[in-house]
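Q: What residues go here?
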């Protein structure tokens, strides 16, 4: 199998079982370089990465997440219902534990190069909002490509990881600690697995009929 395709199909989300072994600085740098090489609309490169490898700072940031209000109920919001989306349970405390155990945490910022960030969307007039959301979507697509590039580079180096968005429950506090100017999107936590046992619930590349339409 082609090595790139193999890396894509073997990528997994690991939330436990990280080895305490440090990741060499040269490996972390190469992973970040792959993120910086991602495509983005208008080549705007809307991302900024905040790379945390020190145990003390990771523990501090995990503590900010753990002490946030509403950790037991923090799940995706359903605008139609005006509240938490049914069928999901909070993984905030689990994510904080990952921050403590994974040796590398790459916090991902969207600089808001098109729309100025989420706050600007909230303040936009109704006639400007639709176009602004399109620009924001372009930003998020670029950020997502950068995250996937870094994740696949990590897999190529024998690491596992997980991307966690629920750390946004402490976005303001984390942003102050890391000097985040734009919107925090989440954190990519990486480390060597203690063993190669496949985590449960791994995403599948199966050609599922309900997710594809062929023309």
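A:
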């Amino acid at each position: 199998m082609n090595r790139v395709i193999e890396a894509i199909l073997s990528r997994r989300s690991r939330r436990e079982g990280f080895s305490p072994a440090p990741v060499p600085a040269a490996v972390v740098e190469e992973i970040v370089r792959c993120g910086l090489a991602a495509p983005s609309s208008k080549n705007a490169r809307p991302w900024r990465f905040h790379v945390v490898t020190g145990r003390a700072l990771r523990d501090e940031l995990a503590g900010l997440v753990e002490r946030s209000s509403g950790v037991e109920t923090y799940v995706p919001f359903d605008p139609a219902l005006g509240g938490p989306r049914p069928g999901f349970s909070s993984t905030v405390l689990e994510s904080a534990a990952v921050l403590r155990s994974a040796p590398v945490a790459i916090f991902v910022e969207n600089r808001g190069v098109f729309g100025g960030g989420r706050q600007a969307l909230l303040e936009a007039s109704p006639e400007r909002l639709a176009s602004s959301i399109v620009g924001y979507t372009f930003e998020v697509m670029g950020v997502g490509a950068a995250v996937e590039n870094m994740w696949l580079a990590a897999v190529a180096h024998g690491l596992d990881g997980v991307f966690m968005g629920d750390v946004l429950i402490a976005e303001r506090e984390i942003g102050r600690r890391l000097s985040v100017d734009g919107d925090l999107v989440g954190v990519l936590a990486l480390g060597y697995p203690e063993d190669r046992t496949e985590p449960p619930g791994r995403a599948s590349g199966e050609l599922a009929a309900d997710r594809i339409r062929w023309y």
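A: Context that may help when evaluating the design: Helices lie at 3-10, 25-36, 55-66, 92-101, 118-123, 126-156, 171-178. The longest strand covers residues 183-191.
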